[in-house]
Specification:
Length: about 160
């Protein structure tokens, strides 16, 4: 380790991303790696940077990682998905699952400290309605849907 590395010690289990790195040992900039969460296997940790950089919909890499990472940090997680993915979302650790084909999460009356919207099929007003005071709304994606919404490139499946 270089003398400027202060967050890590020799022997720490780390994960990250470096160009062309599929190795047990690699030379990478300090900001390209970080401590590996203790509850992940090396294989699981190795997949995080790849899926985190290649985003294509909520039922793929982003949504599944968001649920697992939030749970790893001790959050109570509500996952919104279609009927066919409800069991998958539960198996990833979601405490609650909302089937978007049967229920509108923005009208259920619950409030959340963090809303991570990867689908964009609700208006900003709808999303703000479910935020707790001081809550955070994180949007992923964008564009204009057929219905004219600024955020809403995909429909709920």
């Amino acid at each position: 380790m270089g003398r400027d590395v202060t967050r890590l010690r020799p022997g720490d289990e780390v994960f990250g991303e470096a160009e062309g790195a599929f190795a047990e040992y690699v030379c990478a900039p300090a900001d390209a790696v970080g401590p590996m969460p203790a509850n992940l296997t090396f294989e699981q940790a190795a997949a995080v940077p790849l899926a985190g950089n290649l985003v294509n919909g909520a039922s793929g890499g982003v949504g599944t990682f968001a649920v697992q990472i939030a749970k790893a940090f001790g959050a109570e997680v509500t996952g919104v998905c279609g009927t066919r993915n409800a069991e998958l979302v539960r198996s990833l650790g979601a405490d609650h699952v909302v089937d978007c084909s049967r229920e509108d999460f923005t009208r259920a009356g619950r409030r959340y400290d963090l809303v991570f919207d990867m689908v964009g099929n609700r208006s900003l007003t709808d999303c703000r309605r479910v935020l707790a005071p001081g809550g955070t709304l994180v949007l992923s994606g964008g564009g204009v849907s057929e219905g004219g919404s600024l955020v809403g490139p995909m429909a709920c499946w």
